[in-house]
Amino acid sequence: MTSATGIYLDGAWHDVAEHRENINPSDHRDVIGLFGRAERSAVDDAVDAASGAFGPWSRTSPQRRADLLEAVAAGITAQADDLARLLAREEGKTLPEAKGEVMRAAHIFRFFSGEALRVVGERQASTREGVTVNLAREPLGVVGIIAPWNFPIAIPAWKAAPALAYGNTVVLKPAELVPASAVALTRIIHEAGFPPGVFNLVTGSGAVIGDAIAAHPGIAAVTFTGSEPVGRRVAQTAVARLAEVQLEMGGKNPLIVLADAELDIAVECAINGAFFSTGQRCTASSRLIVEDAIHDRFVERMLARMSELRVGHALDDATDIGPVVDERQLETDLRYLGIAREATHSEVHGGEVVERTTPGNFLTPALITGARNDDQVSREEVFGPVASVIRVGDYDEAVTVAGDTEFGLVAGICTTSLRASEDFQSRSDTGMVMVNLPTAGVDPHVAFGGRKGSSFGPREQGTHARDFFTQTKTAYVRP
Q: Is 282 a catalytic residue?
């Protein structure tokens, strides 16, 4: 029999009335497990547990918090192979990609174990004689985490680890498509010895559990990663009750390829950024903006390289690109490809549903040539292995086209010109810039986030995480 998993509240697992099958997108016959679809009242119970634990946890010594976070990092590392296989089964990343994500989660917990010991304040003289000013950073309270399906363990890690490091308590809602990785992480957190109520997991639908987290008066802050429309609704709900909000949303990220670029590097940056992880990354290179002088050679090399990519089961060693996460997302990808095929000025290469030895959501990578920046597929986030090639005349046009989007997460450029590299870093209206690197792929110890419709609120990761997960208190003292 397939096992059923409930929700984790106040240090213990609790069953719920309804469960949902977690299906392997590489093999629809593989049911990973049954996972709880909690009711809205479960959020009340989770917040009650987190609120009760907050006072003692916020006063726990930084060393104690650091030790517990380090124990989680060690637990993830010890179980890395099993966690990677689980992640690949439920989300569809290839096994090497899944292993990389798991290790990133471990690195994040290890980084924030150190940050727990580095919560520094300020002390300075007042403008008034005999008065001293002390500024301290304190935790917010209960933090609600709404995580997406495309990074089932890394994103919960990079939200939960800083929240816990700085003395907050947590209610985590993972995406309903990928509960198994979040459950596995929760078990590691439990085994590490966190006090009951400090960390709580509620699985279920976004419309029920996510909305309840955004609206709950006992949740001091909400950190969300997902689509822009949902993010806007979360913000409207949470801000209306004056909760702190942090949003990471969509991207329509450009990769500029100039005529002076090293072609091999440019092609590999585009292949990696556009198609690896099945293109299911907010940092994916979905607009390839190519200077006219190199355009035809670039497209030729891209198509040749794409023909070498093997689409298949995520656990197959020969696979380069795993399946689309579920049938609904596959339908979305195919809808956008249909729109591109209907345009008389563009041509779609690839983007075909293929059969393998197991029933799964297998889609070959798609390159849309002849695309324009005002095409629907160039404006809206597809979130699949789909990239548009946009021809431009020169560098200045490339920069203009790159910035002509409502999103501003990350932008890349491939060039051997130091002048162009430096100029683009300053002119790009994005939160992150990559030079001769894929747009997808960031380090966990530095700030992550974008501008415009891609992000809202303080940055995630690195030391910048404290700007969201703590609040300041200024004290004036006259002895």
A: yes
